[in-house]
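quick q for whoever's on today - can somebody do inverse folding on this one?? i tried earlier but teh output was garbage lol. tokens:
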């Protein structure tokens, strides 16, 4: 019987255990899995709880339907009838500009415009910014010229440089920066364009111009019948239901919470691994490290120092979510849309806010209104040091300034996530190639998680599936 140790009990580690059990059963491979999780609970940043009749998400509240790994896994686990779309009839997003919420222009593709005229009608940009957009199709962005053939790869640049050189500073500062901060918690001046905006880079390389590429993609999308479903999907009883269902389906996995792995090393002879935890040494034929990258770097130093250093150089930022529950009667009017993002230039500590009761109405009774405020990331790393009462004051105070009133919350909840958001810095994809090359020299060792090829739940599940498939192929080769 083969033994596998999975380190990390977030969505990546749990999914890896599930896929490994499933694949081993189909291949007729005898397997035993030990899953080690340092915390006393599974799920990582996925955390669902109820406060009376309200359902709160302490971490991600949904997943993108455009990336099917999460919804496919839910259906496989028997949760198809629990999948619920967002309330797209009211799907609007706002940007705070000069203290006022202004609606995000239509025609956006990822974080850039596919049409100029909706931007000209918007009050989000100045006359100068609109003129810069008008001439954008006529300008060659820095780093490209007319002799650069479509399909030719170029050096990686920051997301800020990529957007600024093609659309101007205002599109970066008032549109792209707050949207990227909401997704990655990152500084666009250091964020890799190739890692964070791969679709846009691919369109430019295919068509020779980002404007041509975006317009072609928008036209292709418009020529198709509107797809059924929503951009955002969640589970009726919370994303935590996915964690619970995964754990319940494990049959060949010994789950050990409150058990931090101390290190991984090769046994003398070179094939087997030894994983240390709580003074106990466990032998394993294969190891899947599904922790944040900085933790993986610490664990792998005795296996391969160069690999550990490469993995450990992937930086993370922290974030805080402050959730509020209000009586609707305490609000002058119910906020519109799904929420808003805040550009750095507004000099707020609030980075974004989601109107949960609009996005997912079933998460609160009709007389209640839920909001989730996001703080931290690259722009405010010190936020994690603030005490609870100060976090509530910051979030509620800035929210009140934006709404123009200060409603009294019925309750609040604070969720602190230390070093949870990986930062795909310029050169990230080159680092991934170097990591892959080092892993190729360590048969039986695999990585999964949000530190490598995507930060969302579907990305983590996809990475877990790939790690489990690789581990199973390896086990079959050595039996």
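ok took a stab at it. sequence:
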């Amino acid at each position: 019987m083969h033994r596998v140790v999975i380190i990390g009990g977030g969505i990546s580690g749990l999914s890896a255990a599930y896929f490994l059990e499933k694949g081993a059963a189909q291949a007729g491979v005898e397997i035993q899995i030990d899953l080690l999780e340092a915390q006393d609970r599974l799920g990582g940043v996925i955390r669902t709880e109820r406060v009376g009749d309200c359902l709160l998400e302490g971490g991600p509240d949904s997943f993108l339907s455009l990336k099917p790994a999460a919804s496919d896994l839910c259906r496989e686990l028997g949760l198809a009838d629990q999948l619920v779309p967002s309330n797209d009839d009211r799907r609007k997003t706002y940007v705070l500009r000069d203290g006022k919420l202004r609606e995000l222009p239509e025609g956006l593709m990822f974080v850039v415009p596919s049409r100029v005229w909706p931007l000209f009608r918007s009050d989000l940009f100045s006359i100068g910014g609109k003129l810069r957009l008008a001439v954008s199709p006529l300008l060659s962005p820095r780093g490209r010229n007319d002799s650069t053939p479509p399909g030719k790869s170029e050096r990686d640049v920051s997301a800020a440089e990529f957007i600024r050189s093609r659309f101007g500073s205002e599109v970066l500062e008032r549109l792209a920066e707050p949207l990227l901060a909401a997704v990655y918690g990152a500084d666009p001046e250091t964020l890799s364009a190739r890692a964070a905006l791969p679709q846009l880079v691919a369109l430019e390389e295919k068509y020779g111009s980002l404007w041509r590429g975006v317009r072609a993609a928008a036209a292709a999308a418009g020529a198709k019948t509107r797809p059924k479903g929503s951009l955002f999907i969640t589970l009726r009883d919370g994303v935590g239901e996915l964690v619970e269902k995964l754990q319940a389906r494990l049959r060949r996995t010994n789950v050990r919470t409150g058990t931090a792995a101390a290190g991984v090393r090769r046994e003398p002879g070179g094939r087997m691994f030894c994983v240390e935890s709580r003074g106990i040494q466990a032998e394993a034929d294969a190891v899947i490290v599904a922790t944040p990258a900085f933790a993986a770097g610490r664990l792998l130093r005795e296996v391969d120092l160069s690999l550990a250093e490469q993995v450990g150089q992937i930086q993370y930022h922290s974030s805080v979510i402050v959730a509020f529950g209000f009586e609707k009667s305490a609000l002058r009017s119910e906020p519109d849309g799904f929420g808003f993002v805040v550009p750095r230039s507004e000099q707020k500590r609030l980075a974004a806010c989601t109107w949960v009761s609009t996005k997912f109405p079933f998460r609160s009774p009709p007389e209640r209104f839920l909001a989730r405020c996001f703080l931290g990331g690259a722009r405010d790393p010190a936020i994690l040091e603030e005490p609870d009462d100060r976090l509530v004051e910051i979030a509620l105070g800035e929210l009140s300034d934006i709404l123009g009133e200060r409603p009294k919350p019925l309750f609040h909840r604070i969720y602190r996530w230390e070093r949870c958001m990986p930062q795909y810095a310029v050169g990230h994809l080159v680092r991934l190639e170097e990591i892959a090359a080092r892993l190729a020299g360590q048969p039986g060792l695999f990585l999964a998680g949000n530190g490598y090829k995507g930060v969302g739940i579907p990305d983590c599940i996809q990475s877990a599936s790939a790690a489990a498939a690789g581990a199973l192929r390896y086990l079959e080769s050595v039996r």
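fwiw The first helix runs from residue 11 to 27. also Residues 106-140+155-222 form a domain with the protoporphyrinogen ix oxidase, domain 3 fold (CATH 1.10.3110.10). so keep that in mind when u check it
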